Amino acid sequence: APFARRRRQCATTRAMRRRQRGGGMRVFTAFVVFVAFAGAFAGVRGDAARGSRATLGAGRAREAPSGEVKEAARAGEALRWVMESPCDVYSKSFAVESGEVLRRVTVGASERACARERARESGKDSQACAAYKDVVAKIRTMSRDDVITTLRLVLHEACQSAAMELSDPEKRSAAEAEEFVKDAVRRSAEEEATAGKSSANPWGSNEEILARQREEKLAKDEERTTGRGIWGWSRDVAQFREFSDAFGDTLSRDSIQVQERNALMDIYRRTNGANWRRRDRWMSAKSYCTWYGVTCQDADAGVTFVDLRDNNLRGDMPQAIDELRMLQGIDMSHNRLEGRLNPMIGELKALRYLLVRSNELYSNIPAGVFRKDSALVHVDLSDNMLSGAIPQKEFMNLHNLRMFNVSVNSLSGGLPDVSKLPMLEVFSASTNSLRGELPHFERDSNMRFFDVSKNLMHGTIPPLPVQMPWVLFDVSGNSLSGELLPVEFPRTLRVFSVGNNNLNGSIPLTFGKLPYVEHLDFSSNKFTGMLPSTVMRKPSLRYFNASQNALEGELPQSFYQGEKERSAMKLAELDVSHNRLTGELPRALVELENIRVINVAHNKLAGELPSEHWSTRNLIRLDVKANAFTGRVPPSLATARKLEYLDLSQNRFTARIDLSVLTIPTLTHLDVAGNDFDWTNVAKAGASSPAASRARQDPSRAIKPPRADEL
């Protein structure tokens, strides 16, 4: 051992001199020195450790200790491992360790750190000793997460100290030591990801590991049988493919396995695999077909699906994906991936599902992704930072495409003629800067969901062929003009949104013939004519917005016939504000069970508000501002326990107002200005009321009658 130590010191000194002379070789030399030291160190200490573990194992076999003694034995064994390899242990996930083992190891590691610092400072107590005393005092009250955090801090200091001791402290900087720490953590993080760890691992027995693997298998089986629709509307299965079609006839089975393993390892390393949420069996010696999120055609080769969505992937978009020649689907959505899409992805002839939404990808969409005879079925690049234009010519190669989503990016240029793709069902490019006119859809198109809202589209809105299976049509937030043609609409249509454009004319009454319509938005346009009352009576309608127009007429006085129809009405939000409507607020409207929002502000409505039968269970917003309502504010509004927004301003209310309405606890906005309310009874009627009592307890909610100059 002394000879080995001296040899390591000489090697370290020579390496440090070479590093000082050569700038380009600095990192490589440091790595070589570290590996040499770690290998020799592990050889010397490993023999002793194996001997102690063997002795401890034999003791357990002889004595058959109780649960507490077993925990203490495991903690002692783990503590020895911690002190031998702090850099390796630092990167562990601590997923299967018991709380008792973690507490014992944390206390033991803190005590060793204190002893090491005390020896270095000639018996003086140091910061490490103060930390040790604090840990001893609080360890039993600390949560599991706090214990792990404390242990990591101790391990980080031990790892840093070990790195500093690799060479002469006078010649080594803290930055160089930190580089050694990072390299050690990166290396050990990959090794720690192995599933079925060896029995010598003191952090968990084989029984615990096998139990966790059984739970994972059950979860995966449940996912497979329930069909959660990872790859689309329904769970898809891999299509069988010959290996020779993907890799050619020259590669052997072993060569294919090496190529696929290297590609997956590249994904792991480039996306900070050590910090993934789940990385079961990754980087282990077991078949990569058993790694979390990887599906293969055979048991040991032929990667078909890689599902790593919402798994805390960070770094550049992996470029080795194209080496997985049999890949049919990849889902890396909801991560933190950066960089560009690899155009070579288009070379994967079997790839059908490319899902990378909600990342931080930038640059343009490479034309190479959309190769001729592409098998792509679902493409989701939404919620990234992509720019440039959609490659229109190459886009037309996607004859099998069913879903294409590039919404919430920074794309510009023209809109592809999506009507020419016969299989396309979903096209979403909302929240971009796309220009051009809307496509004219043919009768044989399969389009169901079309969303280009919040862009720079111009021109008119073409008719929608009634033969098409439309479900959603959203072109709101553009610069479209012209009129809506009074033609029949597809009966399957549920959502029709043209708000915030420059449309004019009247709203076609043919919308009233749609049996399943749920969402209609005509807001912020220049529509004139009568309010389409027949449309508002549809039992399936949930949302109706015709605000910011110049509509006339009255709100329908009847929305249903009989109690049965009233219960069937689903209308939840009605906004017809900023128009020229007249008449009264219908009683039939405020009686609807599902109503949440009523906004009739800035019209010419008059009369009294319905005095009773308000459905207040779900009501959260009532806005009648700037009309000509008179009479009394309905006291039954006080029962609206979810009401957040109440605006009664700029009307002609004159009667006394119920204090309980003004003190609804959930209110965040209340405006009663611009009326002639009678406030004389507020002090008398409210002095002994529960509402007044609450106001006295909470001065911020106290209601004071306005002065004459404030009215």
What descriptors fit this protein?
single chain, 711 residues, alpha/beta, five-stranded parallel beta sheet, 18 helices, 30 strands, flat
Q: Which of globular, elongated, flat, extended, rod-shaped describes the shape?
A: flat
The computed structural class is alpha/beta
Largest sheet, in brief, is: 17 strands, mixed
Question: Approximately what portion of the residues adopt beta-strand conformation?
Answer: 5-15%
| Helix count, DSSP H or I runs of 4 or more residues | 18
How many strand elements?
A: 30
Question: Would you kindly provide a written description of the structure presented here, covering whatever features stand out?
Answer:
By secondary structure, the chain is of the alpha/beta class. It is built from 18 helices and 30 strands. The strands form five sheets. The chain has a 17-stranded mixed beta sheet, with no helix packed on it. It has a five-stranded parallel beta sheet with strand order 13-15-17-19-21, with no helix packed on it. Strands 3-5-7 form a three-stranded parallel beta sheet, with no helix packed on it. α15 links the parallel β23 and β24 (597-599). α7 crosses α8. The longest helix is centred in the N-terminal third of the chain and has 38 residues, at 26-63. The chain starts with a helix and ends in a 14-residue tail after the last helix. Residues 1-7, 13-65, 166-174, 184-210, 212-235 and 695-703 have low confidence and may be disordered.
